[in-house]
Design a protein that fits this description.
This protein is an alpha+beta fold and 352 residues long. The chain folds into two domains: 76 residues; 208 residues, Alpha-Beta Plaits (2-Layer Sandwich). Helices cover 47% and strands 12% of the residues.
Length: 352
């Protein structure tokens, strides 16, 4: 037993390396332990400060990341809401586009109907070109009625030959020396209107005192342009001695071999002539100077008559047609948007 007291036990050896309960340093005589120098304390302090700083920065980084996540969630929500709104707008836009397309078709149909209604309201009208300004006095209706009766055959007048209304074209009064405005007269009966145009073509030339007067149907500007597009085709048909009629508003009826051929466009008429007669259309759009002789009106040639100020011409077109109401609810005699007349030989041909 005495020998065992002098031999250090294993527990006694471990106790040398155990830290004190207060967290102190290991014993100085412990193996591998040396005393710390001041420089070591500085390094340990720097490491501790760096660790504290890193932990603080990591904490701030975690907070920033949390904020970024929250902002990202908000952004995702807003993008999702925006996508929903864009989808709704696209759906409504498709509906609006379909409605707009339908409205365009409706407006086009209404324009055609309005143009047709205006044209038909003028079917009883005639346009008289060449009367000097002021010659009608205070009563243009009686003046036109008296002038028509002065040269129309008595046998051609109907029992109710009446001029309902007559007036100058709806344009400003021209200056002295300028071409006069046309006069527009409305007949009570369409048959009288046709009879006047027919007798005017038979007469060839009409005059009031020293002024040459020409009579035309009172077409709208659009109808005038449509009918004018057939001038080349009509000229070629006359050269071929083929009978034709230009129906209202602008439909060419060609009578060939006792059969009627109808054409709504001049191109179709030219194609028919090329097929039947091998007619070339090379000069179709070049009017023949002999086909449009200058009309003398009060000593003014057609070239002089066209020398109107461009501003006045634009103003005349912007005014549009003058619409009114006559007996029985029909449109009254009305002037066109332009004082120019269809380029027809002599007096205007009848429309059917």
């Amino acid at each position: 037993m005495g020998k065992d007291r002098g031999v250090p036990t294993t527990q006694s050896k471990l106790d040398k390396f155990a830290r004190p309960a207060g967290g102190g340093q290991p014993p100085a005589d412990a193996p591998g332990v040396r005393e710390t120098s001041p420089s070591d304390n500085l390094i340990l302090g720097a490491i501790s400060d760096l660790r504290t700083s890193i932990e603080g920065k990591i904490g701030d980084l975690h907070a920033d990341i949390s904020l970024i996540r929250q902002d990202l969630r908000n952004t995702v929500d807003r993008v999702t809401e925006t996508e929903g709104r864009v989808s709704e707008i696209e759906d409504s836009q498709r509906t609006c586009y379909a409605e707009l397309t339908q409205l365009r078709k409706t407006v086009k149909q209404l324009e055609l109907r309005a143009e047709d209604a205006e044209g038909r309201s003028r079917r009883n009208n005639i346009r008289l070109v060449g009367f000097p300004e002021g010659c009608e006095g205070r009563d243009p209706t009686d003046f036109v009625l008296g002038w028509l009766r002065s040269w129309l055959p008595a046998s051609s007048l109907s029992n109710c030959f009446i001029v309902e209304r007559a007036h100058r074209g709806p344009t400003p009064k021209p200056p002295v020396g300028a071409p006069p405005r046309p006069m527009i007269a409305r007949l009570l009966n369409f048959a009288d209107r046709d009879m006047i145009l027919r007798e005017a073509r038979k007469a060839g030339s009409l005059r009031w005192e020293s002024a040459a007067v020409m009579i035309f149907p009172d077409y709208t500007f659009q109808v005038q342009q449509q009918r004018r597009s057939f001038l080349g085709a009509k000229r070629k048909l006359r050269d071929l001695h083929i009978q034709y009629m230009l129906l209202f508003p602008a439909r060419l009826n060609v009578i060939y071999n006792e059969k009627s051929h109808f054409f709504d466009m001049p191109e179709a008429a030219w194609d028919w002539m090329e097929t039947k007669h091998g007619v070339s259309r090379s000069n179709a759009d070049c009017p023949d100077p002999g086909d449009h002789p200058p009309h003398k009106m009060n000593g003014w040639s057609e070239q002089q008559r066209r020398r109107r100020p461009s501003a006045a011409r634009r103003r005349n077109r912007s005014r549009g047609p003058l619409l009114g109401s006559g007996n029985g609810g029909e449109g009254a005699a009305s002037g066109g948007v332009s004082t120019s007349q269809p380029d027809l030989e002599g007096h205007a041909e009848l429309d059917t």
